[in-house]
Design brief:
single chain; 13 helices
Length: 368
């Protein structure tokens, strides 16, 4: 019996429908996929350490040792950090009278002298009463009811997210436990003709990512220490908090410098006023930190490991922010490191083609 071949149009239509349905299902299942993806990333980061420990103990024991070490480290860090941050937050709260005084004497006075804008004067004692009066005059009972409904919905969303956060370590454990077996299965699924090339590219991508992550973590820690120590020596009461935040935010290029610089200048204005000596010291501290990051830390700890020039780094961060917002800024450089490896192999293949060597000419470029 001879079967009639399927019309190419219906075949293409069927493929398009399958792709569209797959994307719709992927979008609907995104809340379920995210914890699995996060667990996979964590397993990828912890696997080298687990692999080293598994030489001496069983793998599941090595995973538990890593978990226990990370938990103990976080407890010790929080034990030291929480009292310090509490003191810093109390100092920040004490800035409220200084902020109101700066508003009344500087901002309000300048606007009154140079423009027609007349702002009301604020007092520390009447600030809370003014806020309450504003809320009562601009928001009614129904608004409060809607606000409470949103608060309850947000609380339920927080509870669901907390459940997912608890789920991530469990998923990470199972990813780590069968990591080598899963990698072997993926290797066996690669066609034999392309196996060596694909494995080579994957290893280079893995090496670039791991070197970038280890180097970037060291840069963040050392840069946070540099900022915090300088600001504390200057006498800025919030120097420790600002320095730590600037160091953590430096995972995104130039973000840590920008956040820390603006926060330090504002805190310096509240604490020291327009004292140009202290403001100059704060500016100098961040210039020193930026110079240390650009000329010492990154060349020594990162170097050319990701193979991107400063122009491509800026472009990658801006492109990531444009496509995926803040998350795009976070993943811009690791993704760029992988793309750089792929592009390098693609360019090597292009140079091996007959078209590059001049043995083949396209009709468009043929001479008459």
């Amino acid at each position: 019996m001879i079967t009639k071949p399927i019309d190419p149009f219906f075949r293409r239509l069927f493929i398009v429908v399958i792709i569209v349905v797959a994307f719709i299902l992927l979008r609907l299942m995104l809340p379920v996929i995210i914890p699995f993806f996060a667990a996979f990333i964590l397993a990828y980061l912890f696997n080298p350490l687990v692999k080293k420990l598994s030489r001496y103990v069983r793998r599941w024991i090595a995973i538990l040792i890593v978990y226990a070490t990370i938990t103990l480290g976080m407890i010790v860090l929080l034990w030291w950090l929480i009292p310090t941050l509490w003191h810093q937050l109390q100092a920040a709260w004490q800035y409220l009278p200084k902020l109101l005084s700066w508003y009344n004497e500087v901002v309000r006075g300048w606007l009154t002298s140079n423009t027609r804008i007349r702002l009301p004067e604020l007092e520390t004692q009447g600030f809370s009463e003014t806020l309450v009066d504003y809320m009562q005059s601009h928001y009614n009972i129904s608004d409060a009811s809607n606000w409470m409904s949103r608060l309850i919905a947000s609380s339920m969303s927080f509870i669901n997210n907390a459940g997912l956060i608890v789920l991530v370590p469990i998923l990470t454990f199972y990813f780590l436990f069968n990591w080598d077996e899963r990698l072997q299965e993926w290797k066996m699924a690669i066609p034999a003709a392309y196996s060596n090339k694909v494995i080579t590219i994957a290893r280079e991508c893995d090496q670039a990512l791991m070197e970038f992550i280890k180097g970037q973590l060291l840069v963040m820690i050392l840069l946070g220490v540099i900022y915090a120590v300088q600001l504390q020596l200057i006498g800025l009461e919030l120097g420790l908090t600002i320095g730590m935040v600037a160091g953590i935010a430096s995972f995104v290029p130039y973000l840590g410098f920008g956040i820390g610089f603006i926060a330090a200048i504002i805190a310096g204005l509240f604490q020291f006023g327009f004292d140009w000596l202290y403001l100059s010291l704060i500016v100098g501290a961040f210039l020193v930190g930026q110079a240390a990051e650009g000329y010492v830390l990154q060349p020594l700890l990162l170097g050319d490991k990701i193979g991107l020039s400063p122009l491509w780094v800026i472009f990658a961060v801006l492109a990531g922010a444009s496509l995926l917002g803040f998350v795009g800024m976070l993943i811009a450089l690791p993704v760029s490191a992988v793309i750089n490896v792929l592009f390098r192999h693609l360019f090597d293949y292009y140079k091996s083609t007959n078209f590059y060597k001049g043995r083949v000419q396209l009709d468009l470029f043929k001479k008459d």
